[in-house]
Amino acid sequence: MTVTTAPENVKGDAATPRTPGNRWHSLTAVLTRVWLVPVAIVAWELGTRQAESFYFPPPSAIVIRMHELWFSGPASDLFLTEEAIENFGPSLGRLFTGWILACLIGITLGIALGRSATLYDYVNPIVEFARATPPPALIPLFVILFKIGTPMQLATIVYTVVWPILINTVDGARFLDGTYADTAKVFGLTRAQRFFRIILPSAAPKIFAGMRVSLSIAVILMVVSELVGSIDGIGYLILFKQQSFDLPGMWGGVVLLGILGYVLNASFILVERRVLSWHRRARQTT
Amino acid sequence: MLDVVNLRHTYGEGPKAHQALGGIDLKVSEGELVCVVGPSGAGKSTLLRSIAGLIKPTEGHIRIRDTEITDTPGDLAVVFQDYSRSLFPWMTVEENVALPLRRRGQDRKARRAAAGEALNAVGLAGATGKYPWELSGGMQQRVAIARAIAYRPSLMLMDEPFGSVDAQTREDLEDLVLQVRKDHRMTILLITHDIDESVYLGDRVVVLSKAPARVAGELPVNLPFPRDQIATRELPAFVHLRAEVGRLVRGKEHPAAPATEEENLADAEDTSRSGERPAAG
Ligand SMILES: Nc1ncnc2c1ncn2[C@@H]1O[C@H](COP(=O)(O)OP(=O)(O)O)[C@@H](O)[C@H]1O
Ligand SMILES: [Mg+2]
């Protein structure tokens, strides 16, 4: 089960407009789409029970183990155990810090590149080259540069995740509609207004698409960096459970990552729908 | 107020070069409403874009109140033909109108008040919180006009502002322009390819020839105010002017006997009216 399968499902869901009138309609639409999920889980349960393989515990065992390990803590800690707090926190911290840093760098740089033809001509070949370098190949470099631990992990995440944001932002900012630009010039908008009120919103649909892709990749890179060299995090837990032959625990980590990826993507789409509601609705009317 | 001297503009270079403006001279005095008519592709938008500082003309001078224009003048507003793209879809109607006022040094409250007032003037007081794409084409163009009014420019440029709305809306918007001009004492340069419209709205009509555009002629419009869509258009003077402008647009010679010509045209009025409008472009 990988993290990247989640987006498509939720994206299709997001495309259906939700008015009170068609709520029942969309409910049945969701049901027809998700019925396979419980079927698959039941099949998985039956299959693994039948096989009685040490490496493939049944999902019920995985869920019980997940509860034991991570979700049987005190209510004051939101039922999280110590192990959960000590590992989920750093993972999410790296994920979000890395992703947000990448967003800031990608959007700022992307708009600069998109709005300046000269800068674009100079920098674009470098961008193309840097983007073509597989990020994991740079992990050894980051390890010497930043030492094992959070800085190196952040570097890995930021370096990988920045490209979709950067490239989409350049794309969005480059092709600013001519009449938008003329209007901004004629009415003497200030630099700040041009940036925040015109260029950024008009590029926003593209930027958001890039940010969403990046978020999914950030989850993958978070895990990879925790498998390579780390003393905590969900990736580290998976490795640790494997080494101590706690297979249900190891699978629990995998399931947790799947859920995390799904929830992140769904939440992102929720935010995107709010922020870009003008875009969706303007396109529906014209 | 506005003084255009020997304005020339050529797009591109070498064998692909296209001379759009072939030396235009044009004066607009304070408070005047001048209509510029010309066939599609003549170079009307090129002229307007040069005055607005959106393109740098190859040759010639543009002066506003005796200052040479090199960049977009500070007190100039433009109403573009393509209203759906000149309003920003991510802002409400009110935000669209208030956006340029920041530069005027007004605070938030004053900007909102000014936007509200301008929207009221164009009959859109109820649409402040709506988004442009929730409005019809005519209403969107009203918002664009409101934005121009709120900006309080000394010169308003309009580039075929009603080229893509239906006939009824078009008449309403034409009357709105006359109203705005009267209430706000604005100087307006309006570009159109519609001969009737130019005569109905203008104090003066300037006719451009085909590319490279030159001034083919100009006619003062001495029709009485207030103008009325039905009554003004049936005046013999209106019909006559329309014919004169039509002749200039087509590059025909001035008729030898204007008096009889006028009578003939008065008879032909109803049939020729829609035929005088070239296709939009
Ligand atoms: N950016 C441009 N590059 C090259 N040619 C252009 C450009 N803009 C307009 N033209 C050409 O210049 C001529 C005049 O255009 P324009 O001023 O838009 O005419 P009008 O507004 O009178 O219809 C047209 O033939 C058009 O194809
Ligand atoms: Mg034009």
TrEMBL record, chain A:
Q: Which UniProt keywords apply?
A: Cell membrane, Membrane, Transmembrane, Transmembrane helix, Transport
Q: Give the superkingdom in one word.
A: Bacteria
Major subcellular site: membrane
Q: Where in the cell is it found?
A: Cell membrane
Topology with respect to the bilayer: Multi-pass membrane protein
A cellular component term, taken from the record's GO annotations = plasma membrane
Looking at the record, the residues that make up the ABC transmembrane type-1 domain are 88-272
A Pfam cross-reference name:
BPD_transp_1
Q: Which GO terms describe its biological process?
A: transmembrane transport
* Coiled-coil ranges (or none): none
- TM regions (residue ranges): 95-117, 137-166, 215-238, 250-271
Mind telling me which InterPro entries this protein's record contains? MetI-like, MetI-like_sf
* Protein family: Belongs to the binding-protein-dependent transport system permease family.
Q: What is this protein called?
A: Nitrate ABC transporter permease
Species name:
Sphaerisporangium melleum
- Gene behind this protein: ssuC
Automatic annotation (TrEMBL), chain B:
Cite the ABC transporter domain residue spans from the record. Answer: 2-235
Q: Where is the composition biased (Basic and acidic residues)?
A: 270-281
Q: Which residue stretches belong to region Disordered?
A: 250-281
**InterPro entries on file:** AAA+_ATPase, ABC_transporter-like_ATP-bd, ABC_transporter-like_CS, ABC_transporter_ATP-bind, P-loop_NTPase
Q: Name one GO molecular function term.
A: ATP binding
CDD domains associated with the record: ABC_NrtD_SsuB_transporters
Q: Where does this protein have compositionally biased stretches of type Acidic residues?
A: 260-269
Keyword entries, A-Z: ATP-binding, Nucleotide-binding, Transport
* A Pfam family matched in the record: ABC_tran
Q: What is this protein called?
A: ABC transporter
Give the organism the record lists: Sphaerisporangium melleum
Its organism's taxonomic lineage begins at: Bacteria, Bacillati, Actinomycetota, Actinomycetes, Streptosporangiales
